[in-house]
Design goal:
- By secondary structure, the chain is an all-alpha fold.
- The chain contains 18 helices and 4 strands.
- The strands form 2 sheets. It has a two-stranded antiparallel ribbon.
Length: about 400
């Protein structure tokens, strides 16, 4: 005799497990990630308390620990201090032992002290969620068994494995190893797929590392962030307030020169600017590749496909051997040399903090003059578009 309070067909149990784990994913991406770690939105106390309670039941995650570790990941990304970089630990370890890396870093009190400020510190947090973090998991086990009987143990196991596998393993591992890149931030973050559904939008990891303070993780028209859908829904109900999203490019085609407004717009959209420049480099590279192979047979041993990646990768992230090979390719083509040097000059503009904004605007205008004087049509078109940023 089945003593379960709820009896379902086999597919009903599958849907129930997926629904329960999806609520957990939404709690992680909306509450822990976008609200707590990055302050990209404000949450009303109702959803905020619900998310904290649900995470206590289904994961045992402590808000301060998770927030601290994630903030440190962004601050020390792809370095030896990064808590879970596959570039440091290897993809296999992060993918299969990501939860262990999390637990190890959670024991680092210096991390919690430095990066955990601003997280909840009320009576519930101190006396229940943090002090008895494993109690919620046990309570969830009892609830699942009472509701669904023995099959509830399987549902509980799926709930317990979901975050360690999907978040600690896939996002922290695959999200820094395989996928596509819309932008070129100074790390190895990648978008796993353009449709962020199973992991609440976290699949769009390259977008997130580019605009870490954005409440919305999708940036292209074909990308979908289900976490953003929930945030918008909460906003309509007055339960959330969106503080920041990634900037959108606005062009004023009547502008003919760079001014302070142009500079501000270019700085705000610098990742989009450099991504577009990378596409131009790729186009110029493809036009030059045949000529290089034909006239410079000594370059034949160089992996030209790899050189294409090196052309728009931050130079600091290249090995000495890669820099040497890239230098040989660049020096063999005037077009590549001009485009590559212009890219470096433009990227350096963001870091010239000693200049006033008026001086930076003048530098940007001078850069546009150099691009247009290069005689390379695609660079000339890029320069003219850059002047229109508003």
């Amino acid at each position: 005799m089945n003593s379960a309070l709820i009896e379902l067909p086999w597919w009903g149990y599958i849907l129930t497990a997926l629904a329960l784990t999806h609520i957990t994913i939404v709690s992680v991406t909306v509450f822990l990630h976008r609200h707590q770690a990055h302050r990209a939105l404000e949450l009303h106390s109702i959803p905020s308390h619900f998310f904290r309670f649900w995470l206590w039941l289904t994961t045992g995650l402590v808000t301060k620990e998770w927030t601290s570790i994630h903030r440190k990941h962004h601050a020390k990304c792809e370095t030896t201090e990064d808590p879970h970089s596959p570039q440091i630990y290897g993809i296999r370890k992060v993918l299969f032992e990501g939860a262990e890396l999390y637990r190890k870093e959670a024991e680092n009190l210096a991390t919690l002290e430095k990066y955990g400020r601003g997280t909840p510190d009320d009576w519930l947090e101190r006396n229940l969620y943090t002090r008895h973090s494993s109690l919620g998991i046990i309570l969830m086990l009892i609830i699942d068994f009472l509701l669904f009987g023995p099959i509830g143990l399987t549902i509980w196991a799926v709930q317990m494995a979901w975050i360690p596998i999907m978040a600690a393993g896939i996002i922290n591992g695959v999200g820094h190893y395989w996928g596509y890149r819309n932008f070129q931030p100074a790390d190895c973050s990648k978008n796993i797929v353009p449709w962020g559904i199973l992991i609440g939008g976290e699949e769009l990891h390259n977008n997130h590392h580019t605009y870490s303070g954005s409440a919305k993780l999708s940036v292209k028209w074909y990308e979908f962030d289900i976490g953003w859908m929930y945030i918008r829904g909460l906003s309509v109900l007055g339960l959330s307030k969106i503080k920041k999203i990634a900037p959108k490019v606005i062009l004023d085609k009547a502008k003919l020169s760079c001014d302070i407004d142009t500079l501000s717009a270019v700085l705000s959209n610098r990742f989009e600017v450099m991504a577009n420049f990378a596409k131009l480099l790729k186009r110029i590279y493809r036009e030059e590749i045949v000529q290089l192979k034909l006239h410079f047979p000594d370059l034949g041993k160089i992996e030209f496909k790899r050189a294409l990646v090196w052309l728009y990768t931050d130079e600091a992230m290249l090995s000495e051997q890669e820099k040497l090979k890239l230098g040989l390719v660049i020096s063999a083509s005037k077009k590549l040399s001009a485009a590559y040097n212009l890219r470096k000059e433009l990227a350096s503009l963001w870091h010239r903090s000693s200049l006033t904004r008026e001086q930076m605007a003048q530098e940007l205008e001078a850069w546009c003059h150099r691009a247009e004087a290069s005689g390379i049509e695609v660079l000339q078109q890029f320069s003219r578009r850059l002047r229109c940023y508003a």
